Amino acid sequence: MTPLLRVRHLGFRWPNGGKALEHCNLEISRPGLWMLVGGNGSGKSTLLRLLAGLLQPSSGSLTCSCTPALVFQNPDHQLLLPSCSSDLQLGLPPGLDARERRLAVQQALALVGLAGLEDRPIHSLSGGQKQRLAIAGAVASGASLLLLDEPTALLDPASQEEILALMAQLTRRREQPLTALWVTHRLEELERCDGAALMHNGKAGSWQSGHALRQQLERQLGALPGGGAKR
Ligand SMILES: Nc1ncnc2c1ncn2[C@@H]1O[C@H](COP(=O)(O)OP(=O)(O)O)[C@@H](O)[C@H]1O
Ligand SMILES: [Mg+2]
Fold it and tell me: Cα–Cα distance between 37 and 230 in angstroms, integer?
């Protein structure tokens, strides 16, 4: 079976010569909620930006049979227009008439639990609602691979859980399940994924169970001076 995503010996250097990725390999062969975890500067955000096509690889290859879209940590950096409806309309694929556009917006809002909020000003939404709107926008634009860069980092615990539950549902639904590559620094989130990989020094480790990776990282953190206050 052709993988949905295949990254082979991917390398990326910044213009200042700094290496962000080197011989990075990663493959996703089926839809699901896939998580990446790793220390600061290990290359997670750079990898997502390469997958989204915002950066060009310096070496190696990247093949993707799905349409990617990024979901940022801070939804205020990606929601541009004043109301839910206008923001979603901005990202819709071209060629839809007015009725189809209205319907697409309605469906996208319903998909993320925001049905009926077409005219709500975005500034009046909670952080969790904004993040759900950003996910709706990605899906409405036709993306089937969501690249989420620490999407719950700025949210309260209840909203974190909502976003996690939403992505788990969208990636496991029977019809057209999405693929999500989710960067996290919250080790408890690893329990909810279909597979997790550790990034270190610009390389991704192999997929393993989120539970096993959480335990491994917690053991390592526990062995640090300070007993795990650092990550
Ligand atoms: N705009 C940039 N210019 C130069 N170097 C950068 C830039 N952004 C990130 N880096 C460097 O690239 C490496 C990988 O960073 P990043 O992908 O942001 O890591 P992570 O998301 O895992 O914290 C780090 O060494 C970081 O300092
Ligand atoms: Mg990052």
Answer: 14
Per-residue pLDDT reduced to its tens digit, 65-124: 999 999 999 999 988 889 999 999 999 999 999 999 999 999 999 999 999 999 999 999
For 133-154, write each residue's pLDDT tens digit.
999 999 999 999 999 999 999 9
Total residues found in the chain within this entry? 231
What's the gap in Å between 91 CA and the centre of ligand 2? 24
Instruction: Report residue 69: phi and psi, to 5°.
Output: -145, 140
Q: For tokens 């634009």, what's the residue? A: 141
Q: How far apart are CA 222 and CA 32, in angstroms?
A: 30
From 10, 13, 45, the mutation candidate for ligand 1 (largest count of ligand atoms within 8 A of CB) is: 45
Cα 58 from Cα 208, distance rounded (Å): 28
Give which of 170, 169, 124, 147 is closest to 46, Cα–Cα: 147
Does the global pTM surpass 0.90? yes
